[in-house]
Amino acid sequence: DTDSRGAGGVPRAGGSGIGIVRYLGDAVNFLDTAAADTFATTTGTLAGADVDANTTLTYGIANVTVTNGVATKVGTYGTLAVTATTGAYTFTPNAVAINALAANTTETFTVTVSDGTATTTATLTVTLTGANDTPTLTTVAALTGGTEDTAYEITSAALAAAADEADAEGTALSFRVEAVSTGTLEKGGGSTWVAVTVGTTLL
Fold first, then answer.
1. How many angstroms separate the CA atoms of 194 and 197, rounded?
2. What single string gives the DSSP state of each residue in 149-199?
3. Pick from 91, 116, 104, 113: nearest CA to 46
């Protein structure tokens, strides 16, 4: 067989008489959006072949010890588990890590098939499409210490500490003033202060 790749996109490996020729099941692809996404596990089966008759193939992950019949490896964006006797695999995504992606990337796992004498490896690739997640803000605690009819200065640090703002990518955040119900709100420092423009000014 001169074909260099298997049906599932996994390279064939030669020289040992055995090879992982493909993986069966859904493609291992995850699409992040601007929302706080959840991701379902992906399953499939590694399919091996051996030119020698009457051989029993076992599957695994390179440099991982099989425990209770399963080889498991924790990656950056999820965990791959391969059943040694069947080649069945499950990839359990790490939603926090995937949501933190702002750009596309891939993660690869080196999977194995063995006839008990020779072992061949191939690559299982997880494709991840990243997105800049929308930052979240649900509440701002009351800021205490102000006195009626007296200017009260609110620092950026105090505002951030009172709020539950968050960003999946860990980007530095700013606040935008959406409304001023009473009083006058200004931004600045020292002797220089300018009135806040609702819907525009960032703090």
1. 9
2. TS-----HHHHHHHB--B-TT------B-----SS--EEEETTEEEE--TT
3. 113
**pTM of the model as a whole:** 0.69
Residue 181 or residue 26, greater confidence? 181
Lookup: tokens for 162: 């009172």
Q: What gap in Å lies between CA 183 and CA 128, rounded to an integer?
A: 48
Yes or no: say if 198 and 175 are a contact pair by the CB < 8 Å rule. no
Of 103, 82, 81, 102, nearest in space to 93 by CA: 81
Pairing of strands 42-50, 186-189: unpaired
Q: Which tokens is 178 given?
A: 């959406």
CB atoms within 10 A of CB 98: 24
